[in-house]
Amino acid sequence: MKKMLTSLTALLFSIITFSSMAQTNAGRIYGTVTNNTNPLEGATVLVLKAKDSSLLKMAITGKDGNFEVEKMSEGKYLVVVTSVSFQKYYSQVFELTTQNPIMQVPAITLIVAGKELSGVTVTVKRPFVEQKLDRTIINVDAVASNTGLTVLEVLEKSPGISVDKDGNISLKGKAGVMVLIDGKPSYLGGQDLANLLKSMPSSQLEQLEIMTNPPAKYDAAGNSGIINLKTKKSKMKGYNGSITVGMGQGFYPKTNNSLNMNYRNGKWNVFGNYGYNFNKGFQDISLTRNFRDKNTLNLISVFDQKSLQIRNYEFQSFKVGADFYVNKKTTLGVVLNGFTNPGTENSENNTYIFNSGGNLDTRNAGINKVTRQMNNAAANINLRHELDSAGTEITADVDYVGYTTTNRQMFNNYFYDKNDHKKQPDEVLKSNLPQDIKIYSAKVDFTKPINKSTKFEAGLKTSFVTTDNDALYQNLINNQWETDLGRTNHFIYKENINAAYVNTSKEFNKKWSAQLGLRLENTISEGTQVTNGTTFERNYTQLFPTAYIGYNANDKNQFVLNYGRRIERPDYEDLNPFYNFLDKYTFQVGNPYLKPQFTNSVELGHTYGGFLTTTLNYSYTKDIITEIVEQIDSTNTTFVKQSNIATQKNIGLSINAAVPVAKWWKANIYTNVYYNQYNGIINNDPVTVEATTWMINLNNQFTFKNGWGADMTGNFQTGSIRGVLGAKPMGAVNFGISKQVFKKMGTVKLGIRDPFYIQRFHGYSKYQNVDIDFRSVRDSRVLNLSFTYRFGKPVKGIKQRKTGGAGDEQNRVKGGGN
Questions:
Q1: Mean pLDDT across the chain, nearest whole number?
Q2: 746, 791 in Cβ contact below 8 A?
Q3: What does the pLDDT read at residue 815?
Q4: For residue 724, is it within any domain?
Q5: Residues 455-506 pLDDT 10s
Q6: Is residue 692 within 8 Å of 3, Cβ to Cβ?
Q7: H-state helical runs in 532-651
């Protein structure tokens, strides 16, 4: 704790230094736009500096014609309003001061243009980070060095997010993140979610939304919160879209391409996108295992393992859909999407086995070949109906998601003595691990504004999941394949989750506001190992309350206090008692007896002047699901599995500062210091692991003349722990430049990721008689070049489509590659 207090003191000192560079920006501008008879939805409102007419902020009017722009500093401004088929509107110049920080723009009425406009293109440079009341928003395209990356690599660079050697995602030091795509669950979890995100090109992303304590409307799943991946969808009316082509070169080549299209007219909105990504890379793993006597801890033998894995994957994805506007109150929509992710993983492994005296005894050479492909198909039907003009509405979604995975593996092991002579017969093992997952989900949400300051929400949801995993292992004996009955297994898992929630929010006055929610979830599950007839059943019902209190002390200081309870259910693959091998002596196995974990968390947030956000958080997790390492001393074998071994305490302080260093230079600084402690039982012995971790993320954006831009980003994290696994300090630096071309319709970006090749993972696990040290180096130094061209012609249109939604089930599927 002493180290933690020292880190907190240093952190606060650095933030005070940053705050001295900032400007006050607590002002607010609002108003209403009409078309002479009715409110005008979708009009673009631009706030310009009166001095030079430079663009500061932009807003879009809602269905009531209202707009609002917050976090404005003192100064003189004017408002410009544009909408297709209407004449442009210019307001009078007005001034925001400390005494009068709020400006209500006089009612704006747009006049129909004399002739149809040929089209207007407005290009706005978004900030890297936007801080909202209940979430943090990361604008992906704001950083040129994000070009050519995968979605997982973008997450690695994002404030508060950590990604370990296996691609597992943590948020503010806590694992168990629920990942949504366009507000809908990805239905993937753990390693297989990482495999998907490693394959998805960043060119498909528009924003990341990070919510550490989501309201009751969202599924209660996710120990540390929600990350919503918002893909690109045009908000313009008419025919428009964009195409991106890119390539990268690390040790191996990579490509990153996408096409987005949208067409909107009076009754229809039709959209689609396609992405193609090819990624070849390597992972060089070094693993040292010291086998020790359980009682004396004296060294018995040392296993020094070297593994070089070459991964070669393609990723093709598509999405097509349409919205039909039945009338002004009712919208029907359908979305079809899917992906295919074929690839191979070939590795060469050498294990050198030394005795306690350091003398070589045996060398095991292994060649592993894996061919894997995951196919996904999903469909969504959605309905939105307004019940009255006050904003009362009902929405409904029905979803189907299916995954089929093929996974064929071949393991060849050869044994040599210290003189490199054959020591024992070769061992050849092959496996066929198909997986079939089907998910059905339906939900309905009701929203009713009671008055201007009070809103009520309620909803119901049900989901059904079936996973079918049939594993066949065979050994080559006397040139004949014989089934390995000790490893072969057939596992079927069924799950039904039913949920209901209520949520209400109220603004009591200009200073105080509150939101209360309660979610009820009932889970019924059944697992069957068909091979031996073993079954287990679970049926439990839980309540998940959420509460938020907001206090605006003055124009510069706003406070938010929130509380929430969440659940993390085991990933489907973690329940599956199958084996995945690194080599003869190291493998991973599922655990069908995993229980869900529950987390209670509380956060206190403070925003100063709209630019500096500080958050203090505490959470307590019971029956935490975490990765542990166990040994079979008789065979010198190490295996990894998920287990409910412990409770976790997490306390942390995070600070985000947006610093306008100069007119052409904007910096965003995020830093977080947190303390993790795990207390549990492994092999009937108590284990306590704890660590204080400090992480920092720096983002510098530079805007130059003639369409040039650049960025420099960096991140660093001191030593950390995840259960009984520890990690040494690690960081990276990235650079990027961009240039707008073709009258700002196109953008060329050049980025280099980890040019100094310092993003190397070094971890360890040391408890009881387990003593393991591992290192991992991957193809992280990559030069990427991309070109994006935006096209389209605007026409008069209607409301923007809503995205569908389901539950957390998709987050827990495992599969895919790369």
A1: 83
A2: no
A3: 47
A4: yes
A5: 999 999 999 999 998 989 999 999 999 999 888 889 999 999 999 999 999 9
A6: yes
A7: 572-575
- Structure-block tokens of residue 398: 């029905």
Number of residues written out for the chain: 818
Q: Which residues contact 16 (CB under 8 A, 6 or more apart)?
A: none
Read off the CATH number of the domain in which 89 is found: 2.60.40.10
Is residue 199 within 8 Å of residue 189, measured between CB atoms?
no
Domains in the chain, number: 2
Task: Check residues 202 and 396 and name the one with the higher pLDDT.
Answer: 396
Check whether 783 has a pLDDT greater than 50: yes
Q: Has residue 224 been placed in a domain?
A: no
* Predicted pLDDT at 744: 80
- Classify residue 128: in a domain, yes or no: no
* Most distant pair of Cα atoms in the chain: their distance: 92
- Asked if residue 270 lies in contact with residue 239, where contact means CB atoms within 8 angstroms, the answer is no
Residue that finishes a domain, picked among 109, 129, 147: 109
The DSSP string of 256-303 is EEEEEEEEE-SSEEEEEEEEEEEEEEEEEEEEEEEEE-TTT--EEEEE
Half-sphere exposure of 380 (CA within 13 A, CB side): 25
pLDDT (tens digit per residue) in 797-815: 333 333 444 445 455 554 4
- Domain carrying residue 39: 22-109
Beta strands in 73-176 (DSSP E): 75-82, 89-90, 94-96, 102-104, 108-109, 129-131, 136-139, 161-163, 169-171, 174-175
State residue 123's pLDDT score.
43
Chain centroid offset of residue 23 CA: 31
Question: Which burial class, exposed, middle or buried, applies to 743 when counting CB atoms under 10 A from its CB (0-12, 13-18, 19+)?
Answer: exposed
Residue with token string 């209190």: 549
Q: Does a structural domain hold residue 693? A: yes
User: What CATH number did the domain enclosing 680 receive?
Assistant: 2.40.170.20
- Which amino acid would we find at residue 42? G
What span, in angstroms and rounded, lies between the C-alpha atoms of 200 and 25?
37
Scan for tokens 């839980």, then name that residue.
Answer: 542
Q: Find where tokens 């019940």 sit.
A: 387
**What is the per-residue pLDDT for 132?**
63
DSSP 479-543: TEEEE-TTT-EEEEEEEEEEEEEEEEEEE-SSSEEEEEEEEEEEEEEEEEETTTTEEEEEEEEEE
The last residue of one of the domains, among 109, 127, 149, is 109
